[in-house]
Amino acid sequence: MGKGYLSFSVAVILQALANGYQYGFDIMDITGLPSGTVYPALRRLEASGFVKSKWEKQTIAQEEQRPPRKYYELTKLGHEALAEAVRRYRVLEQPMVASEPEPKRT
Amino acid sequence: MLKSKFSQPYFWLITAVSVIVPKRLRAAWKQEWEAELCHHESRLTRWRKLDWLTRIDLLRRSLGSLKDALILQPLRWEDDMWQDLRFGIRMLLKKPGFTAAALIALALGIGANTAIFSVINGVFLNPLAYHEPERLMMIWEKLTRADQVELSPQDYEEYVKRNQVFAHIGAAEGANFNLTGGSEPVHVDGQAATASLFPLLGVNPLLGRTFTKEEDDADAPVVVLSHRLWQSHFAGNPAILNQTIRLNDKNYTVIGVMPPEFQYPPPVRQTPTVSDLWVPRALMTEKARNSHNLKTIGRLKDGVTYEQARAALELSMKQRQQENPKDHDGISTNPIPLPVQVGSQIRLAVQVFAAAVMFVLLIACANVANLLLSFAAARQKEFALRSALGAGRFRIVRQLLTESVLLALLGGGLGLLLANGMLKAFRIFGAGQIPRLDQISLDGRVLMFSAALSLLTGIVFGLAPAWHAARTDLNQTLKEGGRRASGSGSQRLRNSLIVAEVALSLILLVGAGLLMKSFWRMQQVDPGFNPDNLLTFEIQLPYPKYEDAQRRENFAQATMDRLSALPGVEATAFISHVPFGSGQGLNGYKIEGRPEPQRSSDAILAGRRIITGEYFRAMGIPLLEGRTFNAADGDAAPRVAVISQTFATRFFPNENPIGRRLQTNNEWFTIVGVAGEVRHIGLDAELIPQVYFNFAQGGQFRTRLVLRTKNDPLSNVNAVRQQIQAVDRDLPIYEVFSMNELIAKTIASRRFNLLLLGVFAIVALLLAAVGIYGVMSYATAQRTNEIGIRMALGASRSAVYQLILGQGMRVVAIGLLTGLIGAFALTRWMETLLFEVRATDPMTYVVIAFVLAGIALVACFVPARRATKTDPMIALRYE
After folding, report:
1. What angle do helix axes B842-868 and B784-792 make, rounded to 10 degrees?
2. Which residues of A71-102 are buried (b: 16+ CB within 10 A; e: fewer)?
């Protein structure tokens, strides 16, 4: 990243990822950030090595008759960055509450 | 539920946006977005919440895909472009010969182009230091034998009186001063100017003011200094205003200092020195009514064009003629716009060079084109392979384009460096020939033009074969191993490029050859005297001190005695101005017993030189008839004169001039001798009749001395200076030259032209040779198979030579023919630059054609030789 620290919205996204919200649209739901913020942030995070992306299993997708979705995971680097960010943005220490929790499906 | 999947607007949006996602990532990206949208759509459907509100929400979310796609853009560019670039660089490095040749060609073409155009631009298009210089016109008069004659005071007053088209008219004539009061007397060149001059030019003084009309009329001893003089002699001290300085033994008050770039008169050919101070005109002694020394300039009124001004001046000239038919018949007015004046001296030469540079650029481009064509053709196999492996046609084309553009840009960069270097070289070698050279810098527009041209060449010639190559039939090409690439079409194109190169080179070489011959001819001209071991310098006798003619004569005598006594000196003489020097004006004469000339243009005009009797001997000028001046021709004695041979043949064609009388300045002189002719203005200029007068009978204030020395003239300078100062402590000597130096200066510009054009011609020759070699090399290599077969079937070496050389020289011959015709047509244009050589001089053409043919032969020979050396077995297997 350009600056020495992460911006708040990016930190929030990392927190969301840590809390199990791993699909793009889910992150949008839980953080309230628009897709124009979330997806670019995810790209940059991936380019910087904080997150890595994976495709969900083909079988699950076939079941639902749709293409496989992409999900993101924090890397070790990402976890460290999140810890740093939480120290900075104290509010992130509070656990997140989802309106409609979506279980992780892999 | 696979029902009308992807039929919603958000899916269309994703599809639309996916177009700009880099191809490599496109599928994955699209899938990611579609998957999310699908998933959420079905979830909403499951929960029966899929209505138009939620649909809009989905649409809103998918809007972010645009920003997402944009984020990925740099990736796409970096991807493809870096790959192309890296590949391109590798390809260029693999063929260093090709790359070097192309870069050199481009650098030369672009660099030379930019440098020359910058000079043209600087000289013609950049404004002079004056305010709105395009509104200024210099006013000359035209007589039958001279185009740009300065005005006499009488003329000037007439122009002012009858003026209708000029807002202001001003004039100035040269004046010389000794500045004393410092540690050493210093000579200063100045101008006596009318008060109207400064406001007319529109340049405000840096300090103080310029003189007023009252001061002009009243002969006030005031002076305006140049910036240069102020810095060098008065330490740039602002307190100089209202100080007095001592000029020619008189006190003058400094009333102003001009800014650094100011200069009058403007740089015109016969003004080699720069003026350093200006005094009011009325201050100088009233010159004779018909001595023409005033350089006059006028500023046009608003809205008046050059044509209108010219017409008005011609009209008023007619009026003058009607009023005084005798005085003005045959004289016409010749006003010249200032921008034309300043540039006119070198305009033709610069035009010729501009053409030369264009030629070189074209040759360079042709070379590069040939190289690109050959290179691409040789890679047919590579293209076929890549096509077969799935590279799109566009991809291949883009690859080749990248290489050509890379080449063009590198060439352009090198060209810029070269242009800088050339400009520096110009400044060193062209100083004095080209006005305002120090103010010229590289022109950005020209650079853009040259860069664009090189880019265009790169693109056009990189593109054509690429397109052709990418379209080839894969099967065919792979089978034949890519050999058939040199189809007759592209070979024809290559051949025509060679023809063009040869033709252009020939034209350039012929031009250079003609100039060279002119130069050589000029050096053969006899100047009319012996220029070796001749020292010359100038002195300025200050006016009040030497007002009395006798005092001048005493000075002359004392000086000559002292100088002749020096061991290194054989002869000494005074001369008002030497041949090849500055200050060649014309005066009017009447011959006794002749009727008044019918037209003013038939007036007898000749140069006027004031000499001491020893002059002819010192210079080595023969006396054809009569005698020179001697001690008897003193100030109290009857007035005498010596005329030049040209004067005698022109005005006394059938009679002996000795004993006849001449009138000038209202005095009558008896002709006592005829001197041999001397080239006064230049080795290549026309002969001007001269009349010589005796120093003792009215010597000048500013005069030169010539000394015939026994050894190197310049080694005597210090001794000479000492002797002069022994006669008069306050008298500096200046403008010290050896005669040979002075002559060299006048031919310097020719030499410069020759050098320049010669350089271009040689560059063109080299480029053409390299081009021919390249094309022949390639063509021969393509025929290796065929040659192998021929040799295997028994063809001799010489037969192979004949084949190859024949092929090559045939093309060259066409080029030579085209070039000869072109040269014939184009060299007429530069006739004015030639001296005693016709533009169609056959020997030059023939010699040059042979030289070029010879070089082309060598260029063809090398690949031919290589061909004969091939082992037929290898050749047969060559693919």
Report:
1. 70
2. bbebbeebeebbeebbeebeebeeeeeeeeeb
Write the CA distances from B757 to B359, B499, B534, B754, integer angstroms.
12, 22, 33, 5
Beta bridge partners of B279: B192
**Buried residues in B604-641 as b, exposed as e (16+ CB within 10 A):** bbbbbbbbbbbbbbbbbbeeebbebbeeebebeeebbb
CA distance B444 to B451: 10
pLDDT confidence of residue B284: 47
Rounded Cα distance between B252 and B198, Å, is 19
B36 and A69 within 8 Å at the Cβ level: the answer is yes
Going by C-alpha positions, the residue among B8, B10, B20, B5 that lies closest to residue B60 is B10
Verify whether the Cβ–Cβ distance B38 to A39 is below 8 Å: no
Of residues B324 and B298, more confidently modeled: B298
- Say yes or no: B793 contacts chain A, CB-CB below 8 A: no
The string of DSSP letters for B817-844 reads HHHHHHHHHHGGGGGGG-SS--TT-HHH
What tokens appear for B764 in the block? Answer: 């063109």
Cβ-Cβ contacts under 8 Å, A34 against chain B: 60-61, 64
Q: Is the CB of A35 less than 8 angstroms away from the CB of B64? A: yes
CB of B63 less than 8 A from some CB of A = yes
- Is the predicted pLDDT of residue A51 greater than 90, yes or no? yes
Residues B235, B255: contact at Cβ < 8 Å? Answer: no
- Compute the distance between CA of residue B377 and CA of residue B371 in angstroms, rounded to an integer: 10
Inter-chain residue contact B68 with A66, CB threshold 8 Å: no
CB contact under 8 A, B68 and A35: yes
pLDDT digits (tens, 9 = 90+) for B69-91: 888 876 655 667 777 788 788 87
Q: Which residue of A has its CA nearest to B27?
A: A67
Q: How do residues B739-795 score in pLDDT, each as one tens digit?
A: 888 787 777 667 767 777 777 787 788 778 877 777 777 777 777 777 778 877 887
User: Domain residues of chain A, as ranges?
Assistant: 8-93
ipTM of the complex: 0.87
Which CATH entry fits the domain spanning A8-93: 3.30.2290.10, 3.40.190.10, 1.10.10.10, 1.20.1640.10? 1.10.10.10
**Is B61 touching A (CB cutoff 8 A)?**
yes
Tokens of B233: 């002699």
Chain A within 8 Å of B68 (Cβ-Cβ)?
yes
Distance from CA of A38 to the nearest CA of B (A): 9
Nearest chain A residue to B37 by CA: give it.
A25
Say if residue B2's pLDDT is above 50.
no
- Cβ contacts of B32 on chain A, cutoff 8 Å: 24, 69-70
**Nearest to residue B515, comparing CAs of B285, B48, B837, B863?**
B837
Q: What is the chain A residue with the closest CA to B68?
A: A40
| Position B482 pLDDT exceeds 50 | no
Interface contact B65-A39, CB threshold 8 A: yes
Residue B347 burial (CB < 10 Å; 0-12/13-18/19+)?
middle
Q: Is residue B34 less than 8 Å (CB to CB) from chain A? A: yes
Residue B668 and residue B639 in contact, taking contact as beta carbons nearer than 8 Å: yes
d(CA B209, CA B433): 33
CA-based nearest distance A90→chain B, Å: 29
Would you call B266 helix, strand, or coil by DSSP? coil
What are the distances in angstroms from CA B614 to CA B530, B536, B630, B707?
A: 15, 14, 8, 10
